[in-house]
Each structure stands twice: as C-alpha cells, then as structure tokens.
Amino acid sequence: MPPQYLRIPGPTPLPDAVRKAGSEQMVGHRGPEFMELVKRCSEGMNPYFRTASDVMILTSSGTGGLEAAVVTFLSPGDPVLTVSIGNFGERFAQIARAYGADVTMLEFDWGQAADAQAVRAAIREMVAGGRTPVAVQVTYNETSTGVTNPLPSLAEVIRAEAPDTLILVDGVSAVGAIPMEMDAWDLDVVVTGAQKAWMVPPGLAMVAASPRAWAAADAATMPRFYFDLVRHRDALPKGQTPWTPAVGLFFQLDAALRLMEAEGREAIYARHAACGAAARAGLAAMGFELFADPDNASDTVTSALVPDGADWSALNDEFRVRGLQLAGGQGKMKGRLLRIGHLGDVTVDDIVTAIEIIEQGALAIGLPVEPAAGPAAARRAGEGA
Amino acid sequence: MPPQYLRIPGPTPLPDAVRKAGSEQMVGHRGPEFMELVKRCSEGMNPYFRTASDVMILTSSGTGGLEAAVVTFLSPGDPVLTVSIGNFGERFAQIARAYGADVTMLEFDWGQAADAQAVRAAIREMVAGGRTPVAVQVTYNETSTGVTNPLPSLAEVIRAEAPDTLILVDGVSAVGAIPMEMDAWDLDVVVTGAQKAWMVPPGLAMVAASPRAWAAADAATMPRFYFDLVRHRDALPKGQTPWTPAVGLFFQLDAALRLMEAEGREAIYARHAACGAAARAGLAAMGFELFADPDNASDTVTSALVPDGADWSALNDEFRVRGLQLAGGQGKMKGRLLRIGHLGDVTVDDIVTAIEIIEQGALAIGLPVEPAAGPAAARRAGEGA
C-alpha cells in the first residue's frame, strides 16, 4: 500500500502523540486520575470556544452533540428557524423536526453563504406571524459545501431581531481551526467534534451553552436522557460524566490539546488559512471550478466540481491507488463534488502533495490539466497567505 | 505508582493487542477498509449474541444502546413493564419514562434476582387491567448488585403471558462473558457495551434486534434520530453507520474479537465462571458478607457488604495505594458495597491478587481478617470451578 494521505474533512490524521495516547491502558472513570483528565480537557477547549461557560464532552459523534443542543433547550412545537446552506444545515433541521419543533427552513443555494438581510427578513416574518423563533440553528462551517458562514454578522442580525432567541451553532468542522468567539458573538450553544480540528479519532462531541440557554433548559420539555446536557453540566464540576465516557478518547484529546497549546491559537488559525488558500489556488490553477463562493470559502474544507464528463468514482479510484483519500459530494451533490479536508494536523506541504496527486489522477482519466500548475500555485498561495 | 489492577466492572483492562490497535492511524469511515471492518466486527459478535439478526454498533456508552432499544421500538403511552433488580434496572425504566412510556415497575430487593412467578403475576395484572405490556425491560446481569437474572426462565414466562411483547434486555455486563442465546430465548433487543466483556475502551454500544422488534419499529412514534436503529440497520449492509463512527474503537474491537475467537466461546465462559467462583470464595473466606443471592451470583461482578463500622472511603484508599481499583456501591447502596469486576481480560490469578490486596487493605484499617485465608480459598474455588 502506498503512503496514505487522509485529506477528508474528518476523521483527520492523528499526530504521533495522539496515536500513542490511544494505546494507554484503561483507568476507572470514577477515579481521581480520570476526574483530573475530564477537567483538564474541558478547560483546555475554552480558549478555542472563547467562552466563560463550561465545555461539556459527550461520548457520541458530532451529530449527537447537535441532538443535545436541540433536546436540552427546546420544547415540541417551538418555532425554530434553520439557516441552511448545505447537508449539515438540513441535518440540524431534521433533528429539530424529529423532536417536534416547528421548523422554518431558510435555505440558500449550496456553495453560497447565508445572507444576513435574508435572515433578518425571515425572522421578521416569523415574529410578525406570531411565531418568534425560540431558536435559530446556524451552521458555522458547512462541511458538505466548503462554505464558512459570516457568523458574527448573522448572529448580530438574529440577536437584533429576536433578542431572546437561542442561537444554536453547528461548529463541528470549525471550532479549533478558525476563529470562534462564542461569548463575544453572543452565541448560546456551540457544538464541535473530536475528529475535526482536534486531531482525535471520532467519538467525542464537545458542547458549550450560555446562561441564556441554561435558563431555557429548565422549561424545555423535549424528551431527553443520554443527550441531556443538564446532567453533563452537573457532573462536570466533579470531573465526571453522567454515563461511562470514552476514556481512551479523553487520553487522546488531552495529548492533542497539549500540541495545540504549544503551537498557539493564532498560529493554528494562520496555518488553516494558509492551507485553505493553497487548496483553492491549487485546484483552480488545474482548471477545477471551485464550488464555494470565494468570499466565504472555508479554511477547513475545499470543494470543487467534478469536471463535466468525468466520473467521480473513476477519478476517486485514481486518487485512492495513489494513497489520497478525499471526500466526494453529499446529499444532492453526491457524485458531483470533490472535497479536500484541511483541518487538524495539516500543513501547506500536505496540501501541495494532495494537489500533486489530484493532478496525477486527473491526467490518468484524461482530463486536460496543465502539468505542474496546480502544485506551484498551491505552494505560492499557501506561503503567501 | 505501584502496578495497577483495574478490577471494576468496566472499563476493563485492555490486552496488549487491543492497546496496540488503539494507536492506529485514522482511515476514512466511508472507504473500503472501514466498510470491511464494520462488517467483520458486526459478524464477529453474532456468536456471543447467538442470533441470526445483525449486530449494530453505535458510538455511545451502553446507556445510549439502552436508549436506542427504547426509542426505536416504542411509542409514548405504551405500557411497559420494567423488571428491576438494581440501579441499571432503574435506569432502563427512567429512559422509557423520559420518552413517555407508561412504565410499571416490578422491583425486587437489591441483591436478589427477579422471580419468574412474580413476573408472571405482574404481566397478568397488566393484561387484566387492559394494559398488556408492549415491552418488558429486563436486566440480564445487574452490575450494581452482582446478580445475574435467570433470563431464560424469565423470558419463557414473559412470552407465555404476553406473546407479542418485546423483551428488551440490558446485556451490557453480560454478553461475551456469560452464555446468551438471543434467538433461542426469543429475546427482541439485546444491548451490550465495548468496555465490558469485549476488552475495548468505552464508546461503543452493540445492539441486535429481532424481526418482531423491526416490525414494531415501523409504527413506533417516540422521537428518534441519533439512536434510530432503523438507520443503523439500513446502513450496515453497506458497511456503514449513519453517523461518523468511533473509528479507533472499531480497530480495537476487531483486535479483541480475534483474541476471543482464538480462545473460544466456551473457554471464555468457563474462565468467567472460575473467576466468579474465586472472587466469591475469597471474599467469604475473609469474612466479608456476599451481597448477591448465592443462587444468582454473577460471574462478571461480585459484590460484598462493607463490614459494619468500616468506612468505604478509607478502605478504598487502602486498596488504591496498593494499586487495586475496585468499584463501590451505586444508588441506594453507595458507600455500603465493594464490587470486584471480573469480566473481559481476567484470570483466576488476577482474582487471587485482588483478594490479597483486599486482605491487606482490610487489615490496614483494623478489620478482623484471618491472614491468607481469602487468597487460598479464591485459588481453590477458581481452580475447582
């Protein structure tokens, strides 16, 4: 097997220290060592959420974290506005609907970011109709399209139009890789997942909630048990989780947080911005049509259209035999997109390598790609960013 | 730090091969390698569930598996009988209640098993009252008390009195360690968890469901999303999971299942029976009062009363400084029990070591223990079993 280049938007590659931590022996999850570990992991994430609230760690995928954000704070029948720009926006709405929320969808074309004025209009219409949203669901970074929403301006509009609404943010593929200011932007619930920026295998969802959210939890009546964040909040000061946690993943998260602290938050964000610039420039120079609106292109995942006449599956086979694991399209873009993940343990060199293999794969299926243009452009953009 | 002896009923110690698998690099969870891994892990568990149904693997603790068993198959208002013999029986009922089931509790004294005739009477009373149970919740092995229910005879009575009821079984600390015959006993949903007999860190719940259960799922109306087993069932033939799975834990489960297959199911069960006999004999010979009814004492966890006048916390400190991690009491038995876990990667030698340390700890706080009696009795019972 050739060297493997895992360039999907999660799970992301594990640094050596994180791999090593995965082989640690178990300890009791009610014992003193683990209690300290829980607290250290939770506190270690505050600088990336930028919140004074506690960060809770659930044993589930990111989707479980989104479910927790819904069921802990809402009641059946609650009007909810979902601002959707892709597959994960739709999923967030599906969760709310599954639990009986009265969901209004505000959908934007895939590849585009949400427009703040359209969000304003949607909320005004709901308010005028007597359906003031109890919550607004927003995706920070839409993994399926490679678009990052202008979250600060969206949050500002939402708060202005509906001061008491809960702003629930899917930050799964964003937090820890691009700037997040949970408190300053006045967000109420922010969710992320271990296998993204955090460089940890999947299985942990991290969630923080504002005082406004906790006040709502008391009266919220959606049924909840495993994903009841109140139980998580109450267990955390004791260094515990309400149910048996994924102990091994906590060891790995601890190791990853040490690496992140050593690198520094601003350096991490700059590295992701450089990788994003490199990926976009490399694909564009090869002649791929970038799918995301350039003004809102994501620095954690880049998407491009599969060229007309090319078959995604055949193209992907060429990548795979060369060791490159990319992601394809999701939902209605299945078979029509290629997506490069660049979050977590990734450098501009890694992106240049990925672009080189994409070039080889494209040439192998006969696409008209100018040799060497992509990698050179990726290198220039990544180093200039 | 002295050598550590992790003798709690989960997480259980990891064999070397399972630790090693924990350090593997990530792969894409939609790629061909992982698809094969999912199928291999699922099929590798059938011999321990003893079912022709598929074993689904969820990313959650065992409690999440119990929630899946409730929300996938039941509707709000459904009459449910919960046969409870301890803390986890109560939890199973709490989950059903949280989602609106109309739960009737049939509780037995902690330390006792459920009585089949009392179960029969409870069902008859529900049927006579027009509340035929849609489901009966039963704990196979009650971790909080160290009691194993006589599941075949309970299932027989339940099926005789309510032929269409769904028998939902919490097998978390049982399956893979003691005999389970899901199909022969006509059980409908069986749940277990990675960190028990399976020798894997916590974070995976495994669930199998009968054709009778799947038929009920179509009409079931409890809200469900993350724990919707229908989505898991439909994804499994493609080697997928509906949400991003805990990839690293699948690597570890795969390694553990290979060890289990090499040892052989009957040998595994015999080893657990020997460890159970050793633990009970050792504690009794030291003068500890065993908590579980001897006829139904568990072969995966042994409980004994903290002697009158002794303080659990002080006693536990003596164990901990000697490297022994035991569990205490849960729920209403908090501070009143000590529990030795002996499931997964455990031998009679390990139990003798634990009994030796318990003896040292007991002597250290001044309990009147006859020196050397416990370890000798444990050895004899373990080797004679």
Question: Could you please describe the fold and organization of this structure?
Answer:
The structure is a homodimer of 385-residue chains. Chain A is an alpha/beta fold and 385 residues long. Chain A folds into 2 domains: 17-260, Type I PLP-dependent aspartate aminotransferase-like (Major domain) (Aspartate Aminotransferase, domain 2); 265-384, Alpha-Beta Complex (Aspartate Aminotransferase, domain 1), CATH 3.90.1150.10. In chain A, 42% of the residues lie in helices and 15% in strands. The first copy, chain A, contains 13 helices and 14 strands. Chain A has helices at residues 16-21, 32-49, 62-71, 87-98, 116-128, 151-161, 211-217, 229-235, 247-263, 265-286, 312-321, 348-364, 373-384; strands at 5-6, 55-59, 79-84, 102-107, 135-139, 141-142, 147-148, 166-170, 189-193, 204-209, 301-305, 324-325, 327-328, 337-341. In chain A, helix 10 packs antiparallel against helix 13, helix 11 crosses helix 12 and helix 12 (348-364) runs antiparallel to helix 13. The model of chain A has no long low-confidence stretch (mean pLDDT 97). Chains A and B meet through helix 3, helix 4 and helix 9 of A and helix 3, helix 4 and helix 9 of B.
How are the SSEs ordered, and which strands pair?
The structure is a homodimer of 385-residue chains.
Chain A: E1 5-6, H1 16-21, H2 32-49, E2 55-59, H3 62-71, E3 79-84, H4 87-98, E4 102-107, H5 116-128, E5 135-139, E6 141-142, E7 147-148, H6 151-161, E8 166-170, E9 189-193, E10 204-209, H7 211-217, H8 229-235, H9 247-263, H10 265-286, E11 301-305, H11 312-321, E12 324-325, E13 327-328, E14 337-341, H12 348-364, H13 373-384
Parallel strand pairs in A: 1-12, 3-4, 3-5, 5-8, 8-9
Antiparallel strand pairs in A: 2-10, 6-7, 9-10, 11-14, 13-14
Helix pairs in contact in A: 2-9, 3-4, 5-6, 10-12, 10-13, 11-12, 12-13
